[in-house]
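Pilot study result, target chain (138 residues):
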Amino acid sequence: MKNFRKELWFDIPTRRGFVNITNELQKCIDESKIQEGFLLCNAMHITASVFINDDESGLHSDFEKWLEKLAPEKPYSQYAHNGYEDNADAHLKRTIMGREVLVAVTKGKLDFGTWEQVFYGEFDGKRKKRVLVKIIGE
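Predicted structure:
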């Protein structure tokens, strides 16, 4: 059994944003030379997320509106966490969207449903953050 580890870095210039990282993950598989196994991808920061969904701009806008209703950024004073930082909402949004994805690798490719893509979700941007990619297989 082989294993592969790589860190991807993202620097989103806005507080929130979604980035399709599917192609970067496929490049990791290609680099690993693993044909059959699993790819784990997880955000290494507690205010960022990795999730699977459709790459459709209307849906991403819906995510933003929905998350803001569930955990509004302001007023900052509504959160007990906000003292030193103002990012309690980002922690909550990350919890909702999830930390990681696990995807089967088949014949050297991500084994997805028709519209599935992998996204990095940023909820407290404007600084560099990393994502871990771990691939295990043969």
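One observation from the pilot: The beta strands are 2-11, 17-20, 37-43, 48-53, 100-106, 109-110, 117-122, 128-137. A full batch analysis is planned for the follow-on phase.
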